[in-house]
Amino acid sequence: MAPSDWVIKPASAQAQKHWLQACEQELDLMSKEKERLEKRPLERGENPRRTHKLRGKLAERSIAGTTYDQWQYEITSAGRIWYCVDRRKRIVWITQVSLGRPKKTE
Q1: Separation CA 9–CA 37 (nearest Å)
Q2: Fewest CB within 10 A of the end CB: N or C in the chain?
Q3: Residue 39 CA: distances (Å) to CA of 4, 12, 13, 53
Q4: Residues facing residue 62 across a β-bridge
Q5: According to the model, what pLDDT value does residue 44 have?
Q6: Is residue 1 classed as helix, strand or coil in its secondary structure?
Q7: For residues 72 and 81, is the Cβ–Cβ distance under 8 A?
């Protein structure tokens, strides 16, 4: 891993399980997103309309006692990755992965 790379970590066992399942089911899409998160997690990607900060109760997430802004990337028309960025430690926390629209955003 290059010094400029960010580390991707699941925020929970469920997030890890769903991340791995999505990587198996959508290999090309997830490979591209994994690369973006490892290299440029603070950029909005090739299609900035697909990446945005969540709002309301979902806007922030507490992980290990620290509160972060929570972001969403639309993998597909219904698939989502939710994540938080720890700028100080250079960690991208994966909080949720769904290949179908998460119920919480409906």
Answers
A1: 11
A2: C
A3: 7, 22, 24, 19
A4: 67
A5: 73
A6: coil
A7: yes
**Secondary structure class of 19 (helix, strand, coil):** helix
7 to 41, 47, 92: CA distances (angstroms): 10, 22, 6
Return the pLDDT at 103: 58
Tokens of 97: 């992965």
Cβ density class 50-68: b for 16+ within 10 Å, e for less: bbeebeeebeebebeeeeb
In this prediction, residue 102 carries a pLDDT of 54
The residue ranges of the chain whose pLDDT is under 50 are: 106
Distances (CA, A) of 80 to 2, 6, 53, 55, 74: 27, 20, 12, 15, 5
